[in-house]
Structure formats: structure tokens, C-alpha cells
């Protein structure tokens, strides 16, 4: 019975986090249209600021007093998020989508290495084999037309892959085994990131708000409600219930969703090589998740229970 309960609990977490990976995969197409004629930083400021306000309104139905720990931890996580997205965005602008997609997927490997070093607990070698399999799948999925000559953008994406891994482990460590409220943390995470983007380009945010048409506001609503309010709440909730390594592997499915959305709404085609890559990503992630779950449950059996969320 205990194994069935553990499986059901992990399945629930995975479904929520895969949902986040799915909407984040769709976010690339929406964001591309929104920044075609407006400031990227301005769009980000509106996106994250609006998400923070919506989360505040949702919290009003069941308010839980903010603690100073939630304020500081949420704000720190928000600053880290802004840094990751800044590096990723600038890297994507300077390199090809193929190179960017492959290089950022290296975070699947970097995350368990950093988490293992920090927590003095290493996942089995088979997990890293599964992670490498997922990266090879990404290479097949996004590299149908071949890789391109390395440039500065690739270096930035490599740094972004390391920073994303550090961020995930950092977020998990700051929130682990603490009596914190997920929505309070996510409010300060999104508001903190939005404030940073607004400071970077306040004029761009104002111009974007003035010049967006009905179509742009619909796309922005999708980014705010699904990719930010749901996506980052799910991430904050999930990181407190599982490991950064598991989340990194689940995020490894993001390119699959990005390609599927691009096929359905962007008219792109999937080659047979890309289809093999997608299947390899899914199979590798499924294998790796099972390995991670068994290792984590074995470790958890020797630790005191985590304090429940308020």
C-alpha cells in the first residue's frame, strides 16, 4: 500500500510539472510574436508584474500572513529567475534555435551534479545515462538541419544552462524543510522578477502596454495566466515536494512540447529524425524519473518528515 501511495503522489507531482513544461514549450511561439515590434524587457515586466498581481488576488480568497522568510526567499528566487531568463534570452538572440535548444538542455546533467555535490547525495549512474539519452534526443529533435558554428550566443547559452541548474538547486535548498506557503513565495518571486525587468526598461514596458493590440493582449494573457501564474506556482510547489534533478528531467520534455505547438500553430514540420528524438526524450525521461524516485524514497526513509505547508 505504501508503494502505491508513493507512486500516486509522484505521479500527481509529475503531471503538474509536465503541464508546466507543456505551457513553457508553447511560450516560445507566443513570446516571439510579442517581442517582434516591442521591447523584450518591457514584455517581461508586464508578464511577471501582472502574474504577481493575479496571485495576490487569488491569495485574497484564502490569505495566509506573509512571513519575513517568505519575503526574502521569494524575492531571492525572483532575482535568480530574472538572471536566468536574461542570460537565456540574450543567448537565444545571438545564436540559432538549434544550438540554443541543445545547449540549454545540458542543465539536465548539470542539475544532479550540483545537487549531488551540495547535498552529498549522488543519484545512481543510470540516472546520468538517462539524462545523456534525453540530451541526445534533444539533438535529434532540434538538429534536423544540423548545428551551426559556435558563437557568443552559444557561450551565453552554456552559461545559462549552468545558471538554470544552480537556480533550481538554489530554489530547492532555500525552500526545503521550511514551513512556508507556496503562493506567498511565488508572489514575491514573480513581483521581484517583474520589478527587475521594469527597472531595466521601464520605457519599453510603458510603450508595449500602449501599443499592444487585441491579439498581443491575448498572447500576453496566455503567458501570464498559464506560463507564469500556473507554471511558476507549479514549479515552486513541485520543488518543495521532489528534487531539483527530477524537475530538470521533466523540463527536458519542454522541446517536445515546443515542437508540437510549432507544428500545430506555426505550420512547422517534424522530420523522422525529429520524431526519433522526441521518442528518445520521452523514453529517457521516463527511465530517469523511475531511477530518481527510487533513490529519493530510499534516502527519505532515513530522514525526519518535512514540515507541512501552512
Describe this structure in words.
- Helix 3 packs across helix 8.
- The protein has helices at 2-34, 40-59, 68-94, 97-104, 107-119, 125-142, 152-175, 182-200, 202-211, 214-239, 244-251, 254-266, 272-300.
- It is an all-alpha fold and 310 residues long.
- The model has no long low-confidence stretch (mean pLDDT 83).
- The protein has one domain (20-300).
Please give the oligomerization state of what you see: single chain
Q: How does the helix and strand content classify structurally? A: mainly alpha
| N-to-C CA distance | 27 Å
Largest sheet: none
Overall mean pLDDT: 83
Rounded Rg: 19 Å
Portion of residues in beta strands equals under 5%
Give a quick precis of the structure.
The protein is 80% helix and 0% strand. It is mainly alpha-helical and 310 residues long. It has one domain (20-300).
